[in-house]
Each structure stands twice: as C-alpha cells, then as structure tokens.
Amino acid sequence: MNTTTTQVLAQAADINPGLAAIGFGASAIGAGIGVGLIWSAVISGTARQPEARGQLMGIGWTTFVLAELVMLIGLVLFFIAQ
C-alpha cells in the first residue's frame, strides 16, 4: 500500500476510531451473507441438475473465495486504521 492510502486511513481512524470497527463488522456480515447465498444456490442447482454438480462446485468455490477475500480486506484495513 502506498503512503497516501495509509495516510488517508490513518486520518479516517483519527476522526472516529469506532468507524474502522463498524467497517470490519459490515464486511464480515456481508461475507457471511454472501457465502450463505452462494452455497444455497449450489445446493439448489445440484438438486435440480445432478449432472452439473462438478461445474457448480467449481463456481461455488471460486465465488466463495472471492466473498472471503472481501472480509479479509476489511480485516486488514481495520488493523491498518487502528
């Protein structure tokens, strides 16, 4: 991360220290909801077309990783802002 981004995050944390915690909480809740929706869709699709299970699982794992990355980015930004 460059110094400009770090300075902006530090200034945001100085304005309201609780804002970083709220941001991390929102990213964690959003990731949890996203993961639930992803696997719900994979289960429904597999129930409707069992022969597409392999393709659905690949898509499910890929989108699962992307949803979890959102939460990890929020966690990293939370610790940077502290």
TrEMBL record:
GO biological process terms held by the UniProt record: proton motive force-driven ATP synthesis
Q: Name the Gene Ontology molecular function terms of this record.
A: proton transmembrane transporter activity
- What domain of life does the native source organism fall in? Bacteria
SUPFAM superfamilies named in the record: F1F0 ATP synthase subunit C
Topology relative to the membrane, per the entry? Answer: Multi-pass membrane protein
Domain V-ATPase proteolipid subunit C-like: where?
20-80
| Transmembrane parts of this sequence | 20-44, 56-81
Subcellular compartments = Membrane
Assigned keywords, A-Z: Membrane, Transmembrane, Transmembrane helix
Identify the GO cellular component terms for this protein. proton-transporting ATP synthase complex; proton-transporting two-sector ATPase complex, proton-transporting domain
Q: Which InterPro entries match?
A: ATP_synth_F0_csu (IPR000454), ATP_synth_F0_csu_sf (IPR038662), ATPase_proteolipid_c-like_dom (IPR002379), F/V-ATP_Csub_sf (IPR035921)
Any matching Pfam family: ATP-synt_C
Could you say which protein family the record assigns here?
Answer: Belongs to the ATPase C chain family.
> What protein is this chain from?
ATP synthase F(0) sector subunit c
Task: Give the species.
Answer: Pseudonocardia ammonioxydans
